[in-house]
Amino acid sequence: MLQIKRFIKYTIIFYLLIAVVYWVFIHPAYMNWGATSAEIKMNLPGDELISSNRIISTRAINIHAKKEKIWPWFAQTGQNHGGFNSYYWLENLFGAKMVNANIIHPEWQNPLPGDTVYYGKNEGYALVALVQKNEYYSLSGWTFYLHTIDTATTRLVVRYPSMEVRQSKLTKLYYYGLFEPLHFIMETGMMMGIKQKAERQ
Amino acid sequence: MLKSKINISNKFIALNGATVAVATVFAYSILVMIYTIIRSSATIYSIMPMGERNSILWANSISVAYSVAVFSIILALISSISGAIAAVILKNLLLYFNPKLVFKKTVLISFITAFALLFFLYLLLYALLKDWMTFNYFETFSFWFLFPATIFFSACIIGGSKLNKVLESGINQVNNTSNKI
User: Fold this and answer.
1) CA–CA distance from B141 to each of A30, A78, B34, B126, B156 (Å)?
2) Are A123 and A78 within one domain?
3) Do A17 and A81 share a structural domain?
4) What is the pLDDT of residue B4?
């Protein structure tokens, strides 16, 4: 029993250490992972949908493909379509029943404002707010913006409006304790997943 | 009756049951943490170019570790209750059905208790989660059922045999005291 108690003690110390590293080093850096200061400040379509009392993250990645090769993967976003191109095996641990499409489905290539995008089977959903083929795609302010760098490279900029600042302590605990790090993992997973698929084509 | 002589309180047993439950949740969480970090890191490694790889590998790994840590603390709190209840049930079943504390019988009782409790927990989860509960994917089946069930069975059987020893020492202690008197 003494060994078990010692194991619990060391695990708690390890968890505290992880929490310190996360809050001191990782959290401040990952809010704007990959984005330049110009990209953080730039106005994106969908910004008008974000209320002023939200903390915003802007993340960016280079994709070595033209916009036209990247766009189809965004067009078919959603559990009810081609998945989120992120870590489907993690999403499925929580019953999302996610399947990431490995091909482009022509029937899902024309998303329209008001279309429903499910995050998981029987889970929450968002509505497509703004959409411009080969340019941007926004789900209630969660915007994916494509910007041409040169003939072979496109910059993908992703802006996410987080929880409203004024919330109950319990909501804040849930949001900062669990949701935000998970969202970072899944969103960057999505950005890299789309990069992989677009570059492979 | 032999059982009335044993001087080991339910509170002591419940506390130990809760401690074992917390330890098993932590052990399982660390395995999940390692698995998730390795699998997601392998994906990142295959996609990101060398110069941009390190920062995202670190950020992803620490974020995974932090999320699993938070999740495991919540689960440990819930599991400590079920661990305490399971330990007290096991103790009372052992004393009722196996008053002479025969080791083989203890293992059998622990196995049946683990099976019954697991079945009850599964029904409870199914009633609460319904369609969210899916075993369509190997990961989901392993994560929510296969591995926790294996750990629960092991903890119940090992815990039951340890409990057997504790109860035996309790009997000996009582017998020695009554012999001295």
Assistant:
1) 32, 23, 18, 13, 21
2) yes
3) no
4) 44
Phi, psi dihedral angles at A169 (to 5 degrees): -60, -35
Which pLDDT value is given to residue A146?
96
Chain B residue at shortest CA distance from A19: B66
> Shortest CA distance to B42 belongs to which of B64, B72, B71, B70?
B64
Side chain identity, residue B98: N
Same domain, A119 and A173: yes
Count how many domains chain A has: 2
- Asked casually if ipTM beats, i.e. exceeds, 0.85, the reply is yes
Give the gap in angstroms from C-alpha A116 to the nearest C-alpha of chain B. Answer: 20
In this prediction, the residues of chain B whose per-residue pLDDT falls under 70 are 1-7, 131-136, 171-181
Contacts of residue A149, Cβ cutoff 8 Å, sequence gap at least 6: A62, A155
Q: Which candidate from A22, A97, A193 shows the least CB-CB separation from B63? A: A22
Examine the domain organization and report whether A25 and A63 are in the same domain. Answer: no
Task: State pTM to two decimals.
Answer: 0.86
Domain housing A151: 36-200
H runs (alpha helix) in chain B: 10-47, 50-97, 103-129, 138-141, 147-180
Of chain A residues 86-105, which have a CB less than 8 A from chain B? Answer: 87, 89-90, 92-95, 97
Dihedral over alpha carbons A117, A120, A122, A124 (to 10 degrees): -60
For chain A, which residues score pLDDT lower than 70? 122, 165
User: How confident is the model at residue B179, as a pLDDT?
Assistant: 56
CATH code: domain of residue A95: 3.30.530.20
Q: How far is CA B37 from the centre of its chain?
A: 23
Domain check: are A137 and A181 in the same one?
Answer: yes
